[in-house]
Amino acid sequence: MKELKRFILVGAPASGIGTLGRCLADTLNLKSLRTGSMLRREIEACTELGRKALSYMDKAMLVPDEIVNEMVRNWLSESDNSGWLLDGYPRTVAQAEALDHFLQERGMSVDAVVYLDVARELIESRIMRRRECSSCGYVVQTPEVESCAKCGGQMVSRKDDNMEAFARRWKDFETMTLPVARYYEARGMVVKLSVTEEREPADVSRDLAQKLEEFSRR
Ligand code: ADP
């Protein structure tokens, strides 16, 4: 049985991949990097990187590969050799290739790619209800709750959570990120979960645990 400790998560915007990733990271004690949240923190801290990223994120566009690649490389270089999980990266095939190259140079590789496949209509109905904690990134589907259950921070609606921005992000997902899933599928690295109706995150997590176990025995 192969030990799985380096993961990539792939999922459409608002697919629930972030929640699933947090669960997986907690269970396997993995360090996790969510590139979207890290970019938002850079913007809040008014760093050079944040300044560069802002103009793209404001328009719900992907931030250029070079900027994100460097940010992820720095994070990976600082993390020790234990397990990790990347959520929101790679988002383009060029990013996947850059990551592979970086890991290869260090004698490492990704162990499994979790692909959460969710119907578009389901995501559209969720997106209008989503709120995110401005300090710790915790996400809920209850717009009426104002403070974070995890850290007490303020729950806010994200600027890019509206139908127009969603349509754009969905298009980017189909044209740029689905090919990432195919890139890893061709290498036999994908564990795919399909969701066609609303389900409890805990149920989806249980399915994932089972599929990962099967995958590790292959
Ligand atoms: P969502 O899951 O709703 O797409 P994220 O929090 O993952 O949101 O990302 C928010 C924004 O951050 C994206 O719309 C994009 O502009 C930027 N971003 C995050 N990760 C990447 C990446 N790997 N490559 C390029 N841009 C990224």
Labels describing this entry:
about 220 residues, alpha/beta, five-stranded parallel beta sheet, three-stranded antiparallel beta sheet, 8 helices, binds adenosine-5'-diphosphate
Structure report:
The protein has helices at 17-28, 35-44, 48-57, 65-78, 93-105, 120-127, 163-185, 201-217; strands at residues 6-11, 31-34, 84-87, 112-118, 131-133, 139-140, 155-156, 190-195. The protein has a five-stranded parallel beta sheet, with helices on both faces. A three-stranded antiparallel beta sheet has the order 6-5-7, with no helix packed on it. The protein has eight helices and eight strands. The chain is of the alpha/beta class. The model has no long low-confidence stretch (mean pLDDT 93). The relative contact order is 0.19. Adenosine-5'-diphosphate is lined by residues 13-14, 35-37, 39, 56-57, 60-63, 68, 88-89, 91, 95, 160, 169.
What's the arrangement of secondary structure elements?
Elements: E1 6-11, H1 17-28, E2 31-34, H2 35-44, H3 48-57, H4 65-78, E3 84-87, H5 93-105, E4 112-118, H6 120-127, E5 131-133, E6 139-140, E7 155-156, H7 163-185, E8 190-195, H8 201-217
Parallel strand pairs: 1-3, 1-4, 2-3, 4-8
Antiparallel strand pairs: 5-6, 5-7
The structure holds adenosine-5'-diphosphate.
The site of adenosine-5'-diphosphate has 19 residues, from helix 2 and helix 3.
